[in-house]
Amino acid sequence: MAMDKNFDAKSAEDRIAAMWDKAGAFRAGANKRRDDAFSIMIPPPNVTGSLHMGHAFNNTLQDILVRWHRMRGFDTLWQPGQDHAGIATQMVVERELAKEGKKRTDFTREEFLARVWEWKAQSGGTIIGQLQRLGCSLDWDRNAFTMSGAPGAPAGEEGNFHDAVIKVFVDMYNKGLIYRGKRLVNWDPHFETAISDLEVENIETDGHMWHFKYPLAGGVTYRYIEKDAEGAVIVDETRDYISIATTRPETMLGDGAVAVHPSDERYAPIVGKLCEIPVGPKEHRRLIPIITDDYPDPNFGSGAVKITGAHDANDYGVAKRGGIPMYRLMDTRAQMRDDGAPYAEAAAIAGAVARGEQVLSEAEADALNLVPDHLRGLDRYAARKAVVEEITAEGLAVMTRADDPLLGRKLGEDDDPAAPVALVEAKKIMQPFGDRSKVVIEPMLTDQWFVDAEKVVGPALDAVRDGRVKIMPESGEKTYYHWLENIEPWCISRQLWWGHQIPVWYGPSKEQVAEFRDRDRSQPFVVKDIVDFCAATEDEVFAKAIDYYGDSFCIKTSNFSVSRDVDYVPIGGADEKTIELSRDPDVLDTWFSSGLWPIGTLGWPEQTDELKRFFPTSVLVTGQDILFFWVARMMMMQLAVVGEIPFHHVYLHGLVRDAKGKKMSKSLGNVVDPLEIIDEYGADALRFTNASMASLGGVLKLDTQRIAGYRNFTTKLWNACRFAEMNGVWEGHRTQAAPPEAHATVNRWIISETARVRETVDAALAEYRFNDAANALYAFVWGRVCDWYVEFAKPLFDGADADETRATMGWVLDQCMILLHPMMPFITEELWGLTGQRDKLCAHADWPEYGAGLVDAEAMREMRWVIGLIEGVRSARAQLRVPVGLKLNMVQLELDAQGRAALARNMALVMKLARIASLEEIDRLPKGSITVTVEGGTFGLPLEGVIDIAAERDRLEKTCAKAEKELGGIEGRLRNPKFVASAPDEVVSEARERAHVLGEDLNRLRAAIAQLDGVM
């Protein structure tokens, strides 16, 4: 059956994907011909996710590597799977419940989780089908899920990933690598959970900075002297206060100190003194010390910084260094706390601490509620408004003139510029938002579970230092070292229901059990001294508890319902022989479970055949933004758990941006949907675009014009195969590993070019230079095969070399399909099936191993000389706008023997393809001729009477002047340090690229002008 005129990607892609699936083409070990294994673990997309450009790019690169190795006969596995995405999935299901007028807490934990599993079964596999549309050759029979095997998992989710996660937690807990502690975390008030830094979006917003006075205690005064940059005194006055500035006045209620830099002479007289927080009931105002620390910048603001350790990351560090108590002001919803003792009592305790009369433990400081009674229960922003109003009303706001530019406002006609007003700076501030909740994140001191990262980071650093793991590009390796050498404890707990519940149960200490027996039965009994029982199963918990309490007790277990309150653990009601253990309600951060992805997907802790064959994995392809959050943690966890690296190579790439280098965002309207691209241009065009822009460390700019160009590339290949069909190439054709024996120079040349490109592609892919492989294939397939060879072959089909040429063209086009298949699998598979008798799929075609042995240097030299001459003539014609259809006379000025021989053997091709009417050998160029130089010779094109040379030169001069003016302007901006420093990266990058393009254009224009100067 004759080939269709065009390749219909829409109809072909689904059909081909189904064929691959039916054939089991991508199962682990498919097409294995050697013992070497190659494995990649897909960075698991969120189960809530759908294909975006980052996925499309990342998975294209993985698929290229996987298909390349599978075709080379490696024992290949590309492991698919999804991450359970705790917070994202819970959010989706809660939204669905909201449509029914319900919320999560209307259900028991088990009931809610059943709804999540329901949703997962119905909608959780969306991205699988989308990855299949992209042509990803994953072993779909092995699809993994990070919650498989969890309690309540339905049929089909019986894997052991949950068991592996719990086992690792218990093992690390028993080794002292995991602990529970109180540290500052990113707190999302909407979801009421801690979140990771990666889930925080820092967005520049319009904000304010309030300036307040903290009065010195006991009427103390000091001489405040301020100097300018030259040392001249600009302020010299007596003060009875120290001023601070804050963007969050509501957090003043939790201040533990005011800090100044040790070198700041302005405040030296009052270091060690106490000052008053200017808010709250006057009779209970808190006093806090003025301390020194290296954190405050003497040149920023007043140089004095309030220290609120429980609500600010920098303040937390100062408080830890200085032993400053940290007072939490907010509840889980970011409302001002409404618990604990009355404010008067709490303030008295805090005052004693500030004076050094009392010391509080971390837990005692956290329990102390220092929110004044009238502010308790308020939303944080309502509290902010109230605090500002109270301080201002008391006259403790720093004042300025009404026309102060810091205020960022315009005065009305009736306003007095000199009128005193409170100093409230209008300024841009970077504010943290939850990437899913879209609410402002509150830094908050909370009890969480942590991995003691310092204890596990050493082997992960050593593995990269000693070369067992190579990170590319080199900048990624430097970032890896920086992060891991300065690592902080890793918060692994989340206050969610969907996830791996932490396997820790709490119970009373033996002493508290004894107190319970002796208690006053009329009073409630609160257990404060608790013990942890960490175990993988409830049976193990019971065994540990009986071992601890003795076998005379009955042990029961229960779940906390909504929130943890570790100060109360039930003992068993009135039954003195029953002890009830309560399980920690938190779940593990998804980065903890996904940190086990390499071994968890291969069946660990069971020693499976897959684990033995495919671990450590070969390479990880992932975004540079999760180098720390995922890559480094997989390194730490695999080394801690099984004592082995998880992968040998790490290929890091950046964000896929738009054509101008801007980050894609819905607000900018520049988001590109890969599925829409596939619908319009086909998956192959998108994949080849991804490969062509994948330079190590390069900026990833996606241009739809480029995608359209690569769709044209598929058309070019299709048309070349149709041309071959029309000339009988595919009649009786079978796949041949070796090329046919060729005698014609053209055929020997194209075989040589094929051998060269195979070596280039293999070398590039071995070094993860996807763009070099793609560009080499594009130049070869389009330029050498579809353009030059097809044209060169036409006259051969009618001569003595016809059979040889048909065999050669069939072999060369087969090699094009094979070499292109990893990047363009659909069209190559379709062509493979249409163009001959095949023993197996193109996906399993034997990757060629030929190389230098097939290169015929003489044929290569001759045909490249011929191509050089034709291209030289074509370029000259195009530069000077000679009509395309016009045949020109050409003269030969000088030519060496080798060139003469090459020209003689290929005269017909040169005359036809360069559109030359005649060729004459002369001693000197006639007037009005331009030169075309080739290796060993010079030719001329007489243009007198063909074009208006003077008018053409004038046009080129004007075009050149315009380009020079534009280039001068761009280079001027690029020489301006302010432009380079302040303009967005994509703007600077675009300017540099435009300058490069203009420079190349100018070189061509000047060369053309010089040519014309020589003929006038």
Brief summary:
The chain is of the alpha/beta class.
Features of the shown structure:
single chain, 1016 residues, alpha/beta, 4-stranded mixed beta sheet, 41% helix
Task: Describe the model.
With 1016 residues, this protein is of the alpha/beta class. The protein contains 31 helices and 34 strands. The strands form 12 sheets. A 4-stranded antiparallel sheet has the order 6-5-18-20. Strands 12-13-11-14 form a 4-stranded mixed sheet, covered by helices on one side. Strands 23-22-25-24 form a 4-stranded mixed sheet. A hairpin with a 5-residue loop joins strand 8 and strand 9. The two termini are 59 Å apart.
Outline the biggest β-sheet: 4 strands, antiparallel
Beta strand count: 34
Q: Give unreliable regions as ranges.
A: 561-566
Structural class: alpha/beta
- The N- to C-terminal Cα distance equals 59 Å
Task: Present the secondary structure layout.
Blueprint: H1 9-23, E1 37-41, H2 53-71, E2 75-79, E3 81-82, H3 86-99, H4 109-123, H5 126-134, E4 144-145, H6 161-174, E5 178-188, E6 193-195, E7 200-215, E8 222-227, E9 233-239, E10 241-246, E11 257-260, E12 274-276, E13 287-292, E14 304-307, H7 313-322, H8 343-354, H9 362-367, H10 380-393, E15 399-401, E16 420-422, E17 424-434, E18 442-451, H11 457-465, E19 470-472, H12 474-485, E20 490-491, E21 493-494, E22 504-508, H13 510-517, E23 530-534, H14 538-549, E24 554-559, E25 578-583, E26 587-588, H15 590-594, H16 597-600, H17 609-614, E27 617-623, H18 627-641, E28 647-653, E29 656-657, H19 674-681, H20 683-692, E30 700-701, H21 704-726, H22 745-766, H23 770-796, H24 802-820, H25 825-834, H26 857-879, E31 888-895, H27 897-905, H28 907-913, E32 916-921, E33 929-934, E34 937-942, H29 949-975, H30 977-982, H31 985-1013
Parallel strand pairs: 1-2, 3-4, 11-13, 19-28, 24-25, 27-28, 29-30, 31-32
Antiparallel strand pairs: 5-6, 5-18, 7-10, 7-17, 8-9, 11-14, 12-13, 15-16, 18-20, 21-26, 22-23, 22-25, 31-34, 33-34
